[in-house]
Design brief:
The structure holds 2 protein chains of 2 kinds.
Chain A lengths: L6 H18 L3 H26 L7 H19 L3 H23 L4 H21 L1 H4 L5 E2 L4 E2 L2 E2 L3 H23 L2 H11 L1 H6 L4 H27 L1 E2 L6 H14 L4 H17 L7 H15 L4 H9 L5
Antiparallel strand pairs in A: 1-4, 2-3
Chain B lengths: L4 E10 L2 E11 L4 E5 L6 H8 L7 E6 L2 E2 L5 H6 L2 E3 L12 H8 L8 H5 L3 H20 L15 H14 L4 E5 L7 H16 L3 E5 L3 H7 L2 E6 L2 E6 L1 H5 L2 H18 L3
Parallel strand pairs in B: 3-8, 3-9, 6-7, 7-8
Antiparallel strand pairs in B: 1-2, 1-4, 4-5, 9-10
Helix pairs in contact in B: 3-5, 3-6, 5-6, 8-10
Chain lengths: ~325, ~260
């Protein structure tokens, strides 16, 4: 497991998982679930940069996710913007929103920051719910199929590979960032803001940068989900989805890129696997999440990695 | 020669309490300038005022002739001010060498896009920062601990790690807040040697320290604070023999300890 530590180890692990899984998949249904995992994992990696590395919480990231999703629905339908350009526009708008609201709210810390980001997420969801002439309101709206170079992108298998590609690139960029001057500054301000400041780091600016980056990750993931589903609903931007993203970060492991993938995988697949429990499905899900957190407190990947390395925490 | 640091009539209040009041002093280039005084005299508060962690209620601070009063810490860092902390402020989840690399922050000039794509410029920057950090770890005697998580290092090593990190910035003025606190005699000796070497390399040093033997031995000038006010400023001999200082701080025992520094 030691090889999972380095940057290339993590990328290799992701590549192996992505390449091997299809061999074991008996039906399209599995490709569909895996695609959902890749998409969630992409958003979770971005959020992990903010939460796990820089130590800043966001309970409103589904808002950015929803912006990306609705961009590819609204853009082509109402404004005649091509789908891919709409996705780029969605990512840019999410980044812009993060930049504008991030300035004042990132001055807040801990619970105050959590509540402020929560408010921002709810605001986006409300707009999507209420501007029915643009968004279809609570029912959502259809997303026209993605056509690239005259070629229709459809079916879970194709989306499996596309989203896996995005996940891989997203992980690569995040891993690069973590080991760069910016990433070191973020990890530093997480451990001691005072020392970081005195060390010449413009803490407010760095928090803002990572907030914008994580918003763009979420928006791109949102666009992918909308294309894949062919439908968007306000739930993608909703509070519950924000909580799910945060849970994936914590479950998989704060400050672990591979953990982001594992956290997403657990939270996406577990409800599917637990359907055998019928009425007790949600009960079991809640119970398992509690057990995970009690016994793997620092998240699945960091805890297991240390156990296997034989280090006592 | 111009003063590296000029503090003029500085003061700060915390809820009506004058933590520091009307203190003025100058630190000349190459000096080791110590600030001593009883607990609660305002020594660390003074460091926080100079390094921008606190904004002074009154007075002015000049760094190398430039008025820097009220500038935030990260701006002061770029003007050549660096410091360590009394209560350790180490990046515990990063390795020792990464801690020091963070200290190189103001010298790292690569764009965000370049960092995301890990372009050759970023790799070169990372190598340069790491190399400089390794030199500094070697200087403080921690080269063999470079890739260990800072959280796993013993207390004395963390004290030296902070010194290495603060030097990485390439400061004109270095504020050391109780670098020998909690250290045993051997470790104190090592820190003593480090401070003198730092001063010799041309970095001006301001020191807050309770170890009187250390202070009296290495300081060019000493400022004594009591209840946030300046009691006296002078050389070790002047301070040691000042009746007010003996009464307020040194006491009879402290005086003999301080005198022993000469031997």
């Amino acid at each position: 497991m030691a090889f999972l530590k380095g940057k290339y180890g993590v990328l290799l692990a992701i590549a192996i998982i992505v390449l091997i899984l299809p061999v074991a998949f008996p039906s399209n249904y599995y490709f569909r679930i895996a695609t959902l995992v890749w998409i969630s994992a992409l958003a979770v990696i971005g959020l992990n940069l903010l939460m796990g590395y820089a130590g800043q919480v966001s309970l409103g990231h589904a808002g950015f996710f929803g912006m990306g999703a609705y961009a590819v629905a609204v853009g082509p339908t109402h404004l005649g913007i091509p789908p891919v350009a709409s996705a780029l526009l969605g990512a840019a708008s999410a980044g812009l929103l993060a930049f504008v609201v991030g300035r004042p709210i990132l001055k807040l810390r801990g619970h105050y920051l959590a509540v402020a980001t929560l408010g921002m997420g709810i605001l986006v969801a409300m707009v999507l719910n209420n501007e029915a002439q643009w968004t279809g309101g609570p029912d959502g709206m259809p997303v026209s199929r993605l056509v690239l170079f005259g070629f229709k992108v459809k079916g879970p298998v194709m989306w499996y590979w596309i989203t896996a590609g995005f996940l891989f690139v997203g992980a690569w960029l995040a891993l690069n960032l973590v080991d760069s001057p910016l990433g070191r500054a973020l990890r530093a301000l997480h451990d001691s803001e005072t020392a970081a400041r005195v060390g010449g780091i413009d803490v407010a600016r760095h928090k803002l940068i990572v907030f914008v980056i994580s918003a763009v990750y979420a928006a791109v993931a949102g666009s992918l989900l909308a294309f894949f589903d062919g439908l968007v609903t306000p739930n993608t931007a909703g509070f519950l989805h924000s909580i799910q993203l945060v849970t994936m970060v914590v479950l998989g492991g704060m400050g672990s890129i591979l953990g982001s993938l594992v956290g997403a995988a657990v939270l996406v697949t577990l409800p599917q696997a637990l359907t055998v429990f019928h009425d007790y499905e949600h009960l079991m899900l809640g119970l398992m999440m509690m057990l995970f957190m009690i016994f793997l407190r620092r998240g699945i990947v960091p805890t297991l990695r240390d156990r296997i390395a034989g280090r006592v925490q | 020669m111009n003063a590296v640091l000029e503090v003029k009539d500085i003061g700060i209040d915390f809820g009506g309490v004058r933590a520091v009041d009307e203190v003025s002093f100058e630190i000349r280039p190459g000096q080791i300038f110590s600030i001593i005084g009883p607990n609660g005299a305002g020594k660390t508060t003074m460091f926080n005022l100079i390094s921008g962690v606190y904004t002074p209620s009154r007075g002015a601070v000049k760094l190398a002739g430039e008025d820097v009063t009220g500038l935030p810490p990260h701006r002061l860092a770029r003007l050549g001010l660096s410091r360590t902390f009394q209560n350790l402020q180490v990046y515990f989840r990063m390795t020792a060498v990464e801690n020091v690399m963070v200290g190189r922050h103001i010298h790292e000039h690569v764009g965000i896009t370049a960092q995301l794509f890990n372009l050759p410029s970023v790799r070169a920057q990372n190598r340069a920062s790491r190399q400089k950090a390794m030199e500094l770890l070697d200087f403080v005697g921690l080269a063999d601990k470079a890739d260990e998580p800072a959280g796993s290092l013993p207390y004395g090593a963390l004290k030296r790690l902070e010194i290495a990190r603060s030097l990485a910035l390439g400061p004109k003025l270095l504020l050391l807040d109780e670098p020998a606190a909690g250290c045993n005699a051997v470790e104190t000796e090592e820190i003593d040697g480090l401070i003198q070497e730092i001063a010799k390399s041309g970095v001006t040093v301001a020191l807050v320290e309770h170890d009187m033997r250390l202070v009296m031995k290495i300081s060019d000038r000493i400022l004594v604070l009591d209840y946030g006010r300046k009691l006296i400023e002078g050389t070790a001999t002047e301070v040691r023999n000042d009746p007010e200082v003996i009464a307020a701080y040194l006491g009879a025992h402290g005086q003999t300890e301080a005198a022993r520094a000469d031997h």
